[in-house]
Amino acid sequence: MRRVEQRLCVQNSLSVFVFCILAALLAPARAQAQALLGEINGNVVDSTQAAIVGARVVATNPDTNFSRQTTTNSVGGYTLADLPPGRYTIVVTAPGFQTYSQTGATVAPNAVLRVDVILTVGLVNETVAVVASAAALQTDRADIRAEMTQQTLANVPVPIGRNYQMLFVTLPGVSPAQNGNSFAANPTRSINFSANGTPTNINSTRIDGAASGGIIDSNLTYIPALEAIQEVNVVTNSFDAEQGLAGGAAVSIQIKSGSNAFHGSAFEYHADQHLKAYQWAADRTQPNPKYLNNQFGAAFGGKIKKDKWFYFVSYEGTGYSESVTQVVQVPSIAMKSGDLSGSGRPSSIPPQAIRMGAAGHRFPITSSPLLALTWASRTSSSRPIGGHPIRPVREVWD
Length: 398
Hints:
By secondary structure, this protein is mainly beta. It has helices at residues 21-26, 150-155, 333-336, 393-397; strands at 2-4, 38-45, 56-61, 66-71, 77-83, 86-93, 99-107, 112-114, 117-118, 127-130, 144-149, 178-179, 191-192, 204-207, 210-211, 229-237, 250-255, 263-272, 291-305, 309-322, 324-326.
C-alpha cells in the first residue's frame, strides 16, 4: 500500500444575482408570472358576523413599499393575488368602523395566507392594531408542502458544502440525500433525493420560476448560496396546475431582493484534516492526509431609487484540496524482469502453446505452475500465440 497524493483543482463558483433597472426594463411584462407568488384572502365582517361590503383592503410591504389593494365583494370576501413573498402590513377600512391594521403577515411563495377581519364600530381615525395572529390551517389549497425559511437556512446545521438540499431529509417523505457523480460531471455538487419513493430524476426545481434541472440527469445546473435564498418551497403531493413537470417533488426557490434599507453579510467556513477522522484505508500510524475546504463569500442588497429600483448581489467561492489514500498494486522487480511466478494468478496459456521464437530463443516455464516468460532479446520477433503477437514483458512494464 502506498499513499497517492491527489490534488483536486480549486472550484470557484460565482453566484451573482443583480436585480436592477436594466433587468426591470428589458424583462417582458408577463415574466413575473413564471415565478411562484403568494396570495392573501379572507372575509371582512362586523361584530355580529354580518358581511361588510365595499371595505378597502390594502397590503403593503414595508421593505419595498410595494402595495396592492382591493375591496370586499357582496359577501364580504376579498383576494389579493400575485403578491411577491415577504412580510406585509394589512390595513382594512370601512365607513363607520375603526381602522384595522395587522403587521407581520408573511406571504410565502406558492401559498395562500388567510386573514379574516372583524371590524369594530367606531371612528375611522381609531385603529385596532394586531401585531401577531395564530397560525391557521391550510384550507384554501389541497397540496402537501413544506417551507424552509431564512431562519431555518441560517440556524439549522448544514454539512460541508452548504447545500440547501441537505435539509430536505427533515421533510416528511423525503429520502436521505445521495451525491451525484464526480466533480467534473457535477461541479455544483448537486444531490439526488427521492420524494415518497419516486425516482430521483422526476423532481422539478425552479429558481425564481426558471428551471434549473440538468438535461440528461437529475443534477442541478446551479445551487444558490444559503445567504442568497429567501425561502424554499417543496410540494410533495397533490400539485396545483402551475406545478408542472414534477412527478416526485416540486421545489421552488425564491432568491432575495434588495430593499430600501441596505443589508449584507460576509461568511467564511473552514474545515481541515484536524477536524476529520482518518479515511478508512489510511495508515493510522501516519499523519492524517491533507484536507482543506474553504467556503467564503458575501451577499448584499439595497436600493437604486427608493420604492422603485433595487439590487441584490451574491458571491460564493470554494477552495478545495485533498490528499487521497489509495491501495494499489505495483509490479515487483522480478515481474519487471519477466518472472511472473509471484503474481499470485494462474496462467491462462497452456505450456504446449509456448513456441520457439524466430531467433531460436525458447520461452522457458519455471518450476512453478505459474507461467513466467523470460526474454533473451528484446529485439527478437515473436510468433503469434492464438492469433495474437507476443509482446516482450519488459516492453509492457517499461
